[in-house]
Amino acid sequence: MHLSKTIGSMLILIGTAIGAGMLALPLISAQAGFLWSTILLVVIWAVMTYTGLLVLEVNLAFPLQRNSFSSMAYGTLGRAGQITAWIACAALLYSLTAAYIAGNSSLFSAAFSIFFHEQVPQRLNAILFTLILGSAVFWSTRAVDHLNRFLLTTKSVLLVIALVLLMPHVQMQLLIQQSHHAKYLWICAPIFLGAFGYHTVIPSLSNYIGPRPRRLKYIIIIGATIPLFIYLCWLFAILMIVPLEGTNSFTTLAQSNGSIGDLMTIINQLIHSRWVNIAVNGFSDIAITTSFLGVSLGLFDFLADNFKRLDSRGGRAQTALLTFVPPLVFALFYPQGFILALSYAAVFVAVLEIILPVLMVWKLRNQAEFKSPYRVASNKVILALICMIGFVLIGIQIASHFNILPH
């Protein structure tokens, strides 16, 4: 049972990371190219893995079921920290949930158009997706665990098939053409940051596994490293197939504010293979599904803790309405808001998953009333450097929003 829960928790974390953020990587990093994007991706992975362990250190100092980000921030940083954490966590989880609903509706519409030559309204897709997947979150963490295992297994198989079928179409000359665009890494940083935004599910995993530091540590480390490897394979395949300029290219996508569904359509036009398109579209749909499950589970537990909803069917129904109605409304009225929602989410990722963990650990280690059974190897210089990285990433997103950085 312990091994089963450990594997299931690791899969929930992996599934939370590998979702809409992964699908957006090629769209954002096309200008920078594969080599520079790889360097930035590894750096952000290292930072986010480290801060994930910082979150674990703080989380284990609090009792189970009362260990959300809001509770941790209040215990370590007081009321100001709680308010900051509450706003950042709610905004982040709502932004990501909305992005996944919007992204899935776009993908499903594109898939129906490609395979069945039928136009299905994106709003209908959004409603059905939320109702079906939201039911698992409403039911229990165990239901999410078992559904996520099935979906992750299917997703893994489809990803391997997709990469194998895509590799013969790789054009290595594109790697040379892309190798001198480092200035566009500023655009990539916020989305790359969000691609490792699994920290909000750590309290849920702690509640599920129990206060077992060693096991949770390895869940976080392995669960963050596997997505890095998959991201690099995905980036290589797509950036070496879809050209930067031309009729079916990233430039045409940018000019039309293209969505993930539009990228899948371009791949279909470049590679006239039904099997490739089935594998790529199937993987993309399931990737958003698993990420949606992990993020919405974190949001569900966060809201249940903060609004003190009972763990009964009636209480969980109230929490479910709070969890799913606001992001669904966004997806219904702004179906093309996929990249926009991810971009704004990056600001809250930096606050919640980089800056706040550093500040909470700093205070935790100086408060006698809180003792954690786990401690991350660090000193004040390292913590200050990580915190500074968080502020730099926020500055990048603000500067990008006001078109200060090169595009």
Characterization of this structure:
By secondary structure, this protein is mostly helical. The protein has one domain: Amino acid/polyamine transporter I (Up-down Bundle). It is built from 16 helices and no strands. Helix 2 (20-29) packs across helix 10 (213-239), helix 8 packs across helix 16 (380-401) and helix 15 (338-364) packs antiparallel against helix 16. The chain is globular. The termini are far apart.
Percent of residues in beta strands? under 5%
Q: Note the gap between the termini.
A: 51 Å
Overall residue-averaged pLDDT value: 80
Count structural domains. Answer: 1
Proper CATH architecture = Up-down Bundle
Report Rg: 20 Å
Model regions low in confidence, pLDDT < 50 over at least 5 residues = none
What is the helix tally? 16
Please identify which CATH superfamily we are dealing with.
Answer: Amino acid/polyamine transporter I
* CATH topology-level name: Amino acid/polyamine transporter I
Mind telling me the CATH class? Mainly Alpha
